[in-house]
Structures are given as C-alpha cells and as structure tokens.
Amino acid sequence: MAGEKxxxxxxxxxxxxxxxLVALVAIVAFFTVIxxxxxxxVNFLKAQxxxxxxxxxxxxxxxxLGMLLVIVAGHIDLSVGSxxxxxxxxxxxxxxSMGLPFWLVIPLTLIVGGLIGxxxxxxxxxxxxxxxxxxxxxxxxxxGATMWLLGGQNIGPFPREFQAMSNGFIPDLTGIGRPxxxxxxxxxxxxxxxxxxxxxxxxxxxAFGVTPEPMGFFVGRLVILAAAITFVGYQLASFRxxxxxxxxxxxxxxxxxxxxxxxxxxxxxxxxxxxxxxxRLSGIRTERLVFLTFVNMGxxxxxxxxxxxxxxxxxxxxxxxxxxLDAIAxxxxxxxxxxxGSGKIVGVVVGALIMGVMNMGMxxxxxxxxxxQMIKGLVLLVAVIFDVYNKSK
Amino acid sequence: MATLLEMRAISxxxxxxxxxxxxxxxxxxxxxxxxxxxxxxxxxxLMKVLxxxxxxxxxxxxxxxxxxxxxxxxxxxxxxxxxxxxxxxxALVPLLSIAENLFLGNEVASRGVIDWRKAFRRTRExxxxxxxxxxxxxxxxxxxxxxxxxxxxxxxxxxDVRLLILDEPTAALQExxxxxxxxxMLELKAQGVTQIIISxxxxxxxxxxxxxxxxxxxxxxxxxxxxxxxxxxxIRDMVGRDMAHRYPDRVPNPGEVLLEVQxxxxxxxxxxxxxxxxDAGFTxxxxxxxxxAGLMGTGRTELAMSLFGRSYGQGHRGTVxxxxxxxxxxxxxxxxxxxxxxxxxxxKALGLILEEPILKNISLANLAGVALxxxxxxxxxxxxxEDYRKALAIRTPGVQQKVVNLSGGNQQKVVLSKWLFTDPxxLILDEPTxxxxxxAKYEIxxxxxxxxxxxxxxxxxSSEMPxxxxxxxxxxxxxxxxxxxxxxxxxxTQEKIMAMILKxxxxxxxxxxxxxx
Lengths: 393, 517
Fold this sequence. Notes:
The complex is a heterodimer.
Chain A: H1 4-13, H2 15-36, H3 47-72, H4 80-97, H5 102-126, H6 131-150, H7 160-167, H8 181-208, H9 215-238, H10 244-262, H11 264-274, H12 276-281, H13 286-312, H14 323-333, H15 345-365, H16 369-392
Chain B: E1 3-14, E2 17-28, E3 32-36, H1 43-50, E4 60-65, E5 68-69, H2 75-80, E6 83-86, H3 98-102, E7 109-110, E8 113-114, H4 116-129, H5 145-158, E9 163-167, H6 175-190, E10 194-198, H7 202-208, E11 211-216, E12 219-225, H8 231-239, E13 257-267, E14 275-285, E15 289-293, H9 300-307, E16 314-322, E17 325-326, H10 332-337, E18 340-343, H11 347-351, H12 358-363, E19 371-372, E20 375-376, H13 378-391, H14 408-420, E21 426-430, H15 438-453, E22 457-461, H16 465-471, E23 474-479, E24 482-488, H17 494-504
Parallel strand pairs in B: 3-10, 3-11, 6-9, 9-10, 15-22, 15-23, 18-21, 21-22
Antiparallel strand pairs in B: 1-2, 1-4, 4-5, 7-8, 11-12, 13-14, 13-16, 16-17, 19-20, 23-24
Helix pairs in contact in B: 4-5
C-alpha cells in the first residue's frame, strides 16, 4: 500500500493540514537566516524571543480558540476586542478599586465574560438576529462601557499575584535552578505524549479503514515535531522556565482540540455549521448549541482581557482594539471555512503563531507598522486563496 | 424533415473517468427528442457539451448543427446559435421581478439605461406565450416552482430559441403543473421549436417524445422511434437487463398496531390562522408498509414533519400512540426516543451534511450510540458505518468518503443508515426514490421490504402512484390537508386514488391555504 501512489495521495490529501505547519517553519527559518545576516546579527531563536512570542500573542490564541467554534457554527463575533477591554477593566476595578484578591477576581471576571456572551448569544440563537449585527453592536456597546467604567483613565497598577498571570513563570519545584528543572521534565513528558498519541492514532487509523500515512512520513513528522518541542523547551528552560501563559495556552489547546474532535457536543457544533437543518432534523438542539458557543466565546474573551490587562499592568480604554480581527484572521489562516462546518484547533493555533512570529520578526527587522499591516493582510489573503485553490482541484 | 443536430462520436474524459464514450445523437428539425438513462449515464455531460459548458477542444467528436460544423467557445456562444438549456436547478434570481429575470444578461436597454415600458410589454407577450397570467413586476421568489419553470421557458423564448434543452423539467413539479408544462412543450413544437428533454418519468416521455435516445454508461444504446416506444423497452435499454419485476416480491405479514395518530391538526408556521393539517388520523402495524398518496402540496410532508418533533408548523393538536401508549413527540429527540424516524424528501438540504464523510453522517442522529459519557468512540463509529455500508450495499471506496461524492441512490442509503442506527420502530420515508435511478430504486424497495420483515412499520410518501401500488399493503389518500380515504392493496388502483382526490377537492372547509369556516 505504501508505494509511490500512497505517498503522493497522502501529500495531496493532507496538504492543507501540513501546509500551514510548513509555512510556519519556513517563516521562522526565513527570519532566523535573514537576521543572521544583518549588520548586527541577531539570534531570532533565542529564549527571550521564544518566550515573547507566546507572551505577546497569548490573547490572540485564546480568542482564536473560541472564535473557531463560533465560525464553525456558522457565525462570527466582532465584539471580542471590546469585550476583552471591558472585562479587563472589570478585573481592574474589582482588584484596584474593590480590593478583591486575584483568586476571586479571576472567576468573577470569567463569569462577567460568559454573561456578555450569553446576552449576545441569546439574540443570535433564539431570535435569529445575524451574529454580524449583534456582535457589531456589542463591539460598540462594550467599547463605550469600557470608557464609562474607567472614566476615560487607566486603572492600575496590579498586585504581583495578578500580574503573574501573564508575566510569571512556573516555579522550579526540582530546585535545579538553571536550566529550569520542572520545565525540562514537562518537555520530556510532552515529547513522550506526542509519540504515544501519534502511535495510538496510527493504530486506530488502521481500524477505521483509513490508509495510514507512509511510515517514513509519520516518523519524519514525529521527529521534527519532537525536535521543535525539545528545542523550544530547552531554550525556555535555560531562560526563566515555562511562562504561566504558555501553560494556560497548552492546556486550553489540548482541551479544545479534544473537545472539537472527540466529544459529542463538539461534533454537534460541526454538524450545525455543516447543515443546520439536517442537524436539527437529527435531533440536535441547534439554538442551545449556538447560545453556548457564544457564552464560551465571552468567557474566553474575559480570560484574554485579563491576560492583556495583567501584561500591561493597567486597564486602558483603548485596550483590545483590533483583537477580533487578529483572532478571525488566525482562524481563517488556520484553514476554517467562512461557510462554517470545518476548521481545526491545531490549524488555528498555527495560524495565530504565524501572525505572532511575523509580528516579532518584522519588528526586529525594523519594518514599519505600515508595511507590517500590508504584509499581514496579504498573508491572510494568500492563505485563503491557497485553501480555495486546493479545494477546487 | 431535415436534421437539425448531429453529434458524432462524442467522447469526454474527466480525470480517471470516461464520462462519454463515442455517443451519437441525431435530432430532427421540429421534433421532441427524449434522452433517457440512469443517473451517471452521461446525459447531463452530453448536454453540457452541446450547450458550450464544455467548450470545443475539451471533448472529442464532431457536432453538426443546421448543416454546419459547430465549435462552441462557451454558453453565450451556444445561445447565439439559438441553443438554450434549462437546467434542473432553476437559474432565476428570486428577489428580482419576472421582467428583470426574463431579460437578465439580455436587458432591453439603450446605452445601459433600461427601457422599462418596452421590457414590461415584451414580458407580457412572452408570458402569454407560455400561458402564465402574472404581472411582470411580480417577484419570482413568490411564485411556485411550476410557474418558475414556465418563466425559464419564457426566458428561452426571449432569446429566439431554436433548440431548447430541458434537463428534468418536471422533477420538482406536481402533477397538474407537469401536465401544463408538457402541453406547452407540444405547443412550442407546433411553432417549430426543436426540443430535447431529459427525464426519468417514462409516462411523460411516452406522451410527448417523437424519438428517444437511451444512453448507458456513457454510450448510446439505442434510438427508439415513436411507434416502438414502451416503458419496458426503455427500462430494458436503460439498465441493460429485463426488469420483469420492478418491485421486489414480498409476503406481507402485518402484526399489531404500532403507531396510531388521531385528530392531528397543524397550522402554518408563519400564518397562525391557516390550517395545513386537518384532523388527520392513521395507523401503522408491525411489518406493514403503508402508503400516503396525494398531489404535491396537499400536506403529506407537512403531516410527517409535524409528527416528527414538530419540525413543521405550529399549534399542534392531536394524539400520537406507540404500541397503544401515548407518546411525547414534541421535539425531534423525543420523537426519536419514542421510536419514530423521518427520512426527508430533500436529502441534500435536510438529510445530509454533504461535506462530511459517510461515517459522520451515519452517526449523527445517534451520537450517544457511539459515545461513552459524551466522549466519542471513533473506532465504534467507524465499525457501525462499515456495518451499514455492507448491509445496505453503499457503493463507495470507504466510509471516509464525503457524501457529496456519492450518487443519489447511495446518498439515500446513507440517510437511511443514519435513521436505522436510531433503531426506529416506525420509519416515515418521504419520496424515498426521488431523483435516483431505476436500479437503485429496486435496491431501496428491497431494503424497505427487509425492514418490514424485521417487524418495523413503514410509512411511504410518494408522488409516483405506481410505486405506491407496487409496494404498499395499504394506502391512505390525502387531499387539502385531510386524509380522505384508505384503500387496501387489492382495492387500490390509480383511478380510485385520483377519484378520491378529485371528489374531495374544494368541498371541505376550504383549501389548505384557505381560512377555516
């Protein structure tokens, strides 16, 4: 089976999935090389940069996870930037003005975000008001609400514990110090998990009657991924260890990947986006599902809002501007369809990382914000053109 | 009579498939020429070659039209020659008016400014020609499918048609609209318009066609002259074997009453005072196949869907009993739990997620059956799909295949599999053989018989009376939202069914669209 035909057929079928990963690697390689040949060579892959990519783009990845579900369900949410700003302001108000401890502020803010999502989701799901309109309204309303709550000023600074959410690193429980022992242990665990799950899905592929990918391909991909994780992990360990944000990101990514691919509710969201009427006639409560998708989006927007607020160490009226566009772009670069019903969590994370790596690389290169915007816009367009072209073949 | 069109040895290859293999077709000036063949035989491909959708150079063979070789560059080119095709999916813009649609791409304008007076005058002329009495400013989306079909023809007439191609024009029409359309075709013939019709409905072809060309597996099998036309002959040529039995044999063995519906009333989903189903009642026994006959638009689908989790209408009233006990069917999930399944007449829009693979479609209505505490067991899901693939002979390379790539018959088997996996006691099949070819129809009938033999009750809704008469143990006749009669297998004939419909038309409390007295 694993002859010439198997290989090319496999490459064809999984071009989209692997394509964006290849693009990410290529973009990283591009910046690494080009920065080496600057007048003052810069090591693009140094630990600080790697840490910063995740610190500076964590909120985009978090928003994109929720946005994928919204888009898969056949909707859109334009309000997440404003909601993130508002919930950030709420967390600031609770912490600074009310003096509440962080372990109370975090869940309270998440609840506020969920309620905002519920308010918008109610009209979208049960009244069938187009999500574009409801969330466009939400975008304006919560931007205004942020200004109102903050009184046009910044609120801050925050206590250390709250800031640690985005600036902190996991403690080294092993006491090794440098390199960071716990980080190394976690990296080893992650690599082990990667190999185990790879082998497991390969075995079940056979059981599903799917032609497994050629062995060479499988091993090659596994080795590259393991090497990448090990490299990133070691760099982080030799710097300050694993950032707290990254722990949150990895956990959320795993949870949402599992949710979308392996749970009944996840599958139903895809069915809803694929053909709402067929889904409803199959006994799926589509309205409730849309509603919950927006509640989830609201809570994730609140999480993103707190992380950004903690990073800046103050809540500002202008926070979160344009976040919704970054999140939506990540989802589409990651291969989701505008029509709903398709898209993968892994793709979305890769899409967000592509944007993040490009932001950082271009900034180090000293490319102006004007060119950065143009280049990012074109990358989004090219990724989607590539997608459409692939499907038409 | 002169030859208008001759297509010689047309071959067309798609990657991996030879869709047409030396097809010959000769059409005489002024005739109605029918093209028959199973789904996938190559009829539509041939017509796309003829109408320039596949331009000259993308196929082999020659086309001679009105005595001259024809090499088309595109659809506009073919329309320039007076060759106009009306596709199965109507190409009208629902939000525009009749006049706007008629001259779309061909506007009555000078220097880009539309002359509405002239456009409306010409629209009235064209509508008169096709026998449609509607104001030219009417929004097309507000008309029924039958009238829309007539507008398509008027649109063709607006372009000075010489050869009109109709791809399954009556597939979505109800009986009297179909008749009107066929009459119009005969009238156009009298005016000298040559026509090609693709159709599955053999009785219609028999009525209007002068000659029939049968295509099988991308090749011409035969051309049958008018005096030789018989349904058996056409079917034999289409499937390549004798179909002595169009319906599989079965010994009915009805048991006790399974489903009992009493006093079922439903109102229109948007118009509160418009009653669509009136006091309907019926029963289904174990192992019984029960038919529901009636014209389109009499409320058969509405009855079925309203019973199935109130998927249609509002203000539902009446009782539903399963095995003698009243059951709650107020949501789809509850109806499924009560043992009811509904297989839709519109499998692409309502039955399937086309871009998803077979296995995900099959598990959709019973995800709990392949999950443990909300987590999917994908191995089990694949095994279930594989079992149904074998049991129902779904022809596909594997259950990972997207359903959009399957033929109509195989898609229908996927929808059936989805509902069988919920283990229903009663299956309501709404037009289960619509749009699928003769061979696959036989397979669907066989599956229905097997299900009845397992002790399930089956309700079959169909617009094709021969199919109901061939398959059902009992037939209910529906008209204007009521069940107006019941016939046993032995007593049922097409004439009796039609008589029941005609006698009850207009003498109730009004039409289904009308107001209650």
